[in-house]
Amino acid sequence: MEVLNVQPTTSTPAIRSDLSAGILELSGESYPENSFEFYTPVLSWLQEYLEESESLQLDIKVIYMNSSSIKCMLDMLDMLGNAAARGKEIVINWYYDRENSRALDLAEDFREDVKLPFNIIPVEG
């Protein structure tokens, strides 16, 4: 299994995996011109990882997402929900700037859509 390490751009998040710790982290902003093109390799990597591993902690530190990125995130969360239904241990930690009420609202909306341990964690901007 290869490490996933995507460098950030002005419109795409950094994506880093720590295989030994079972962590996948997304951080930055997400409004690529084609979200599906950007996230397809990430979803493929995640599917392969979940076939080989028993647990995953997803740390989301995304400041902003456009609507197509939100759809891709929902696809990712659906994949994680299916893995949890097969007995995988999945935890989501969503970090948001405590001064950004829209970021909190987005995290809460995602939490309502999944049946996974979903922690919403405030951080100082």
From TrEMBL:
Pfam family, one: SiaC
The SiaC family regulatory phosphoprotein domain, residue ranges: 7-122
Top-level lineage group: Bacteria
UniProt name for this protein: SiaC family regulatory phosphoprotein domain-containing protein
